[in-house]
Amino acid sequence: MRAGTYRFHCTDGAHAVLDLSGRYLRARDDLRAEAARAARAIMDRVAGRLDWSAWIVDVHDAAGRRALTLTFADAARPRAA
Predict the structure, then answer these.
(1) 22 and 5 Cβ atoms separated by less than 8 Å
(2) Span 28-46, mean pLDDT?
(3) Which of 8, 33, 47, 62 could disulfide-pair with 19, CB 3.0 to 4.6 Å?
(4) Above pLDDT 90, what percent of the chain?
(5) CB-CB contact of 14 with 32 (8 Å)
(6) Is the dihedral of CA 16, 17, 18, 19 positive or negative?
(7) Is 27 exposed, middle or buried (0-12, 13-18, 19+ CB in 10 A)?
(8) Which stretches make up the DUF6894 domain (predicted)?
(9) How confident is the model at residue 28 (pLDDT cuts 50, 70, 90)?
(10) Is the C-alpha dihedral spanning 58, 28, 20, 44 positive or negative?
(11) Domain spans of the chain?
């Protein structure tokens, strides 16, 4: 699959953490793993227990097209083989 720069924005619809620089990935197949890392990094940084059930990682390619949406709940659990 195609390499490129992707932005991993995180939101619950009311609040947002924007990825202003983006990340270069060698393969589009790496999107889910990188989106999960972005979600876990935010959950790890925020002190206290928040309800992450409404949060998503909204991934866009360099042209602004949506490439993937991943819930924080899905990011928090291991991917089934």
Answers:
(1) yes
(2) 92
(3) 8
(4) 74
(5) no
(6) negative
(7) exposed
(8) 6-73
(9) confident
(10) positive
(11) 4-76
